[in-house]
Amino acid sequence: MENENKTPRPVGRPRRTLNDLPEDWRETYVMIGQEGGSCVEACVMIGVSRSAYETLMKDYPEFRVAEQERHMLSQVWWEKTGRKITKDGGGSAKCFEFNMTNRFREQGYSLRKELDHKSSDGSMSPKSSAQVTIDTSKLTTEQLAAIYGAIRVTTIDPDQ
């Protein structure tokens, strides 16, 4: 009967709050973004694990805004760096391309192209082959015979 009215102890580590972060966490986030740094780099600089980062993103709009700002500043840094490489050389275009597609996929940087394989009526069925017109007026009889021999002419009845 001992401890009947006690509240159970919480299990696990307490959730991180903005008060647990260094005082200058926001300035650090901006600085990391201005240098093209990633989310992981920013988290390490303010002493936050991946799970704590997820908690802060979920619980604090101020943290989400700071992360969005860091992300945008990072994208600006990478875009400027890409322009510099394009203009002056001294860098790898392929490395830049992979950085952009991996860091900023949600902003439209992608190597993947989505293809629409549907026909205009929305089905996956191919349309009947297009008609081709050949001017045979200048062909010899032998040439015409060769063409007719090579082509099997079929008529498609749309009512069947």
Sequence-ordered SSE layout with sheet pairings:
Layout: H1 25-34, H2 39-46, H3 50-59, H4 61-88, H5 93-103, H6 141-150
According to DSSP, the number of beta strands is 0
What is the N-to-C order of secondary-structure elements (H for helix, E for strand)?
Answer: HHHHHH
What is the overall silhouette?
A: elongated
What portion of residues belong to β-strands?
Answer: under 5%
The DSSP helix count reads 6
Given the helix and strand composition, which structural class is it?
Answer: mainly alpha
Percent helix range: 40-55%
Low-confidence stretches: none
Rounded mean pLDDT score: 81
Distance between the termini: 85 Å
Radius of gyration: 32 Å
Q: How many strands, which pairing sense, and closed or not: the largest β-sheet? A: none
Structure notes:
The protein has helices at 25-34, 39-46, 50-59, 61-88, 93-103, 141-150. With 160 residues, it is an all-alpha fold. The protein has a domain at 18-107. The longest helix has 28 residues, at 61-88. The chain is elongated. The mean pLDDT is 81.
